[in-house]
């Protein structure tokens, strides 16, 4: 009996509590009194400020992460891909150059080939460690890893037969160069292109206008200003401290977003331009190396000038045709900053000097003076083709390194501009919510 009585007394109390809560919520949501209206207004203002803070935190974190990933992982793989392409093309050029001297390959050419293969292997390992397994570029990296030992084996076989004086060495060399040009280099180019697109996409996300954040922030600011003006008219007061502080915090947060993203976007655009110029010059360097490989192959095969079309096509891709232009150096000049023009002009001059030396080499070979043609390709004569090729490689390398350094500088500046963007405006939005709550609460207290 006592338990039944106790339960009977508890049930109505619980029901009364729930009924009271519902009644209070109903009054708060639709109560006609001024305090109820003020509480509703405060809830709307706090919600707007909190939403602005949440969007600011999410968007700011995404942009900061995009710049960080673009400047570290993606940029590193992109650099690895560019150096992979260079090392592979240079290795092939050195492999063919070694055959020009006959059975005894020059030590410096062999050392350069070995260094290129070692650099390629190191870059492959580094890129594989940074590239996710499901990345679209993973198959290209796998192709290079699988075919590089095959290529090296063909080159070693070619060297062995060449030292023995067997013509079969040239067949192995041709197979190695064909494997390099049809499978390995295209895979390296695909890897580089995919990473360039990934880098552009990351920087595009980081530098895009923060439309959602600005719209929500402006909506919250408009609500705060409207509330302050209306309450000022009702109470005949000029200033509500809480609402004023809240509005000022939102204004600072919005200005932070506008300034940070504008500065970062400018730096990212510059970084993208430097990266694009470096990629174009990388293409020019690859074409130069392919031209060098063709020059050596024609000498080894003693095919004469009729087989020199590969050299001509590669150099025309760098300099453009006499009638149309539009070579890789023209493209780089159009995209580059004015301070880069001088470096690209130096590359053009060095390319033209190599072309002149190459024409003299072809005249020697076609005239039956084979030993002098070989000396031009492999000797240290400053007027020879080999020396001119080395000068061109050095000038191209300096220009590419300068563009890569400028890219890193601009990328770091963009990252610095976005420092604190994830947390700073979000904290200001929370401060605005607290100030709005305090301002409305003060008005509610006046009605008690």
- N-to-C SSE string, H for helix and E for strand: HHHHHHHHHHHHH
Helical content (DSSP H or I, runs of 4+): over 70%
Q: Could you list the spans in which at least 5 consecutive residues all have pLDDT below 50?
A: 1-15
**First-residue to last-residue Cα separation:** 46 Å
Please tally the β strands and state the result.
Answer: 0
Please summarize the sheet with the most strands: none
SSE class: mainly alpha
Number of helices: 13
Keywords: Membrane, Transmembrane, Transmembrane helix
Transmembrane segments: 211-229, 241-259
Protein name: Secreted protein
How is this fold's topology laid out?
Blueprint: H1 2-30, H2 34-100, H3 107-130, H4 138-163, H5 168-207, H6 211-235, H7 241-301, H8 309-319, H9 328-335, H10 341-366, H11 370-378, H12 385-417, H13 424-445
Helix pairs in contact: 1-2, 2-3, 2-5, 2-6, 2-7, 2-12, 2-13, 3-4, 4-5, 5-7, 6-7, 7-8, 7-9, 7-12, 7-13, 10-11, 10-12
Question: Any descriptors?
Answer:
448 residues; 13 helices; 0% strand; mainly alpha
Please characterize this protein's 3D structure.
- With 448 residues, the chain is mostly helical.
- The chain has one domain (38-445).
- Helices cover 85% and strands 0% of the residues.
- It contains 13 helices and no strands.
- The chain has helices spanning 2-30, 34-100, 107-130, 138-163, 168-207, 211-235, 241-301, 309-319, 328-335, 341-366, 370-378, 385-417, 424-445.
- The longest helix has 67 residues, at 34-100.
- Mean pLDDT is 83; it is low at 1-15.
- This is Secreted protein.
- It comes from Pseudonocardia cypriaca.
- Keywords: Membrane, Transmembrane, Transmembrane helix.
- The chain crosses the membrane at residues 211-229, 241-259.
